[in-house]
Amino acid sequence: MFSRISLCFLFVISVSFALSAQSENEVRVNGRFLVDSVKIGELVPYSMTASYPSNLNLVFPDSTFSFAPFEFSKKKYFQTKTTDKVSFDSAVYYLTTFEIDSIQTLQLPAFQILEKDCTAVFAEIDTVFFKNLVTQKLDSIEAPALPLKTNTAYQNVKWLLDYPLLLAIGGVLLVAVIIVWIVFGKRIKAFFRKRRLSKNHEAFLNKFTSTVSQLSSDFSSKKAETTALLWKSYMEKLNEVPYTKFTSREIINKEKDERLGNALQLIDRMIYGGSSYAAESFDTLRSFANNQFNQKLKEINRG
Asked: Are 199 and 298 found together in one domain?
């Protein structure tokens, strides 16, 4: 690769030669590679010079220009020199190639800026040779002779989480949940509410039936009071009314159900008056609880 001293020396020689042979009205552009051969991906210097009347405006290609089959890497530009109304510009382009053609050419222009457009003045085509480092085609080598290494050991690869994909999936799921809740939210809430009510009602019936069965086989006023309190506790949760704090008369006045009133009065006589066990009173409590449960389900269905 050319050093800074080499480039400056080339610039001075080129200026001297161009100015000595240049007429005042002539635009002359020269371009050539500074090496004879190039390897793939290697920087190759290309020198470009131009001499022109000092009253003209001339520019060299920049990085946006197509240097095909080469690719632009960087550019070194030298300051304009003017002698006897003739200006001289010089630059060195550093290019790379990834083509494998044995001969590669390049022809660059300088642009003369006019009032309404510009004119391209091209240098002569220059050639560089591609240096192929592979001297033998792999297709011509037998498989046993290939310089390959076999390694069947497990290679641990770090697991990478695709955060953009995860966020996208999460966003889609969130939108889907919101849409489902807007459309089916009431139905979903009604479903879980009915499920909870049914579960509680089933648990009450099982416990109430078991308690009444024990009461019928071994009656006592204490057990009758416990059974009545079990019914009141369930009704309090079902209707959100403080039945456990109400007396039987207060419950009768609120519900205005004649059968329920008679049943509660009979149970009060069992608890406080020493009356004998009457199974139909507790059957009435169970029937009333079932009716209230079904009424609740209808209210939920109506929304």
From this structure: yes
Binning pLDDT at 50, 70 and 90, where does residue 30 land?
very high
Among the listed residues 244, 267, 241, the one whose alpha carbon sits nearest the alpha carbon of residue 255: 241
Radius of gyration of the chain (CA): 51
Q: Model confidence over 138-147: pLDDT tens digits? A: 556 666 666 6
- Domain CATH for 66: 2.60.40.10
The pTM (predicted TM-score) of the whole model is 0.45
144 in any annotated domain: no
Residues 121 and 235 in one domain: no
Count of CB atoms within 10 A of residue 46's CB? Answer: 22
Does 107 fall in a domain? yes
Residue 157 is assigned to a structural domain of this protein: no
Q: Give the total number of structural domains in the chain.
A: 2
Parent domain of 260: 194-302
Does some domain include residue 162? no
Q: Tell me the C-alpha to C-alpha distance, in Å, between residue 62 and each of 109, 111, 152, 228.
A: 11, 11, 50, 98
Cα separation, 21 vs 17, in Å, equals 6
Does residue 21 have a pLDDT over 60?
no
At 279, the amino acid letter reads A
C-alpha to C-alpha distance for 228 and 239, rounded to whole angstroms:
16
Q: Are residues 10 and 124 in the same domain?
A: yes
CB 204 within 8 A of CB 289: yes
